[in-house]
């Protein structure tokens, strides 16, 4: 048993380093995309892009119905290639149809959204974002197939690297040929997503070539939606909470300030860099261990993951928290005003790292509804405080509301898992010597 656990730790660490490396390269290109956007197009265009990207993210989240998360569990728990083929294509078909419908609705509502914000220049960017929704949905579902297969390197290449590399290359070309329209950033994302989604879909088709299709009759469209829907609600609330600050700020501040705030969000998210890499590895493991009632392996995997996440995230947090002006200056002098916002959001991200893989444990153990309840509480707190504090403290007030929302659901979720399932997700400082 100890030999198995040591092998498991080595796998988590080894694959985690690979995913971290791939994600790191991808983040560099994402960083360069933001740098070009901030320095060459300016905070105003960045603010327009942030609003358009908000609706791209919301549309993508709604259209996937949580299927991409459930797919990880379905693929991880299936051993037959014919069954996996049927599960994948049936899941993708439901997602694609949904994403086209959602994209069409957002496209048609773009003029109304621009009017609502009193920002007419965002209309075209929102329409372009709506067109990109099906491609992003294909990418998310297809990449999570590889995640369920525990092919984390392949998952990382598509989801963490190409997803950022291709939009960067396109916006770089736009800049070099002097295309300076405010729609250039979102067009870059659309073209990049089209290329990577086409590539990954072709990869999966080749994988399943000449394989028969075999699927239990109970795996209907209704089953897919009912099984994945709670995961969608949980993911949706987390995403809405993550983007609620940009949504609220759109009514109260200029596009320039939204651009500054969105840059702070991206920088703070670096702290959760390792979290995402480790979660990629352990999510299918949690699903398998829970299904097979391997409680010791499950708890040890979560405990080890929590330790890795915290030890890797703390140095990044300290570096950015102590020198926010130095980091923000990279994007331009006008971004320094976001240093307090950055520090507030960093504290929230550190809490996320300390509490460990709360979300994956809930989602892979069939406790999606409980997670949904905790996140719903956090969302209400977030929205109420955002609307109240933005009137008094502007960007900083919304940052405080966002941070408290994230901290609330992570802490409540971690406590529930410990008291109800005897799974400790948060980092145990006593275990560092083990």
TrEMBL record:
Membrane topology, as annotated: Multi-pass membrane protein
Keywords: Cell membrane, Membrane, Transmembrane, Transmembrane helix
TM ranges: 20-38, 44-63, 94-116, 128-146, 158-180, 186-208, 229-253, 265-287, 308-332, 344-362, 374-393, 399-418
InterPro entries: Poly_Biosynth_Transport (IPR050833)
Subcellular location: Cell membrane
Protein name, entry field: Flippase
Protein source organism: Psychroserpens ponticola
Lineage: Bacteria, Pseudomonadati, Bacteroidota, Flavobacteriia, Flavobacteriales
